[in-house]
Write a structure and sequence with these properties.
Blueprint lengths: L2 H8 L1 H8 L7 E6 L5 E3 L8 E8 L6 E3 L1 H4 L13 E3 L10 E7 L5
Antiparallel strand pairs: 1-6, 2-5, 3-4, 3-6
Helix pairs in contact: 1-2
Length: 108
């Protein structure tokens, strides 16, 4: 087993990082919220790993995390559909802003 294979087998997170082909460590996008369900996020792709989603409520401009609402709609944090994150059954964020942070798998 070569050095790279030993590194990959030593730690799940390290393995994931070494297998990625993207040159970017992470991506951040500010998007408009919407009704609970699919939220469009330009640039996020199937296979990317969703790290966090923060919500800025329009009425008081404070930020709070809503990551847990989006994580169950992924495959262990991995985005399932190009261009969208999903919080079906979650909070209606219409009129709010969402700050989405993810790790890209590859550059396309």
């Amino acid at each position: 087993m070569n050095y790279l294979e030993r590194l990959k087998s030593s730690d799940r997170v390290l393995k994931h990082m070494l297998e990625r082909t993207s040159k970017r460590l992470f991506q951040v996008k500010l998007v408009d919220g919407g009704s609970a369900g699919a939220i469009a996020v330009a640039g996020i792709l199937k296979g990317d790993e969703l790290i966090a989603v923060f919500r800025s409520v329009a009425t008081d401009a404070t930020w709070s995390t809503v990551t847990s609402e989006f994580r169950p709609q992924t495959n262990n944090g991995i985005v399932l559909k190009d261009g969208y994150i999903d919080n079906t059954g979650g909070t209606d964020t219409s009129g709010d802003k969402l700050l989405v942070i993810w790790v890209p798998w590859e550059d396309r």
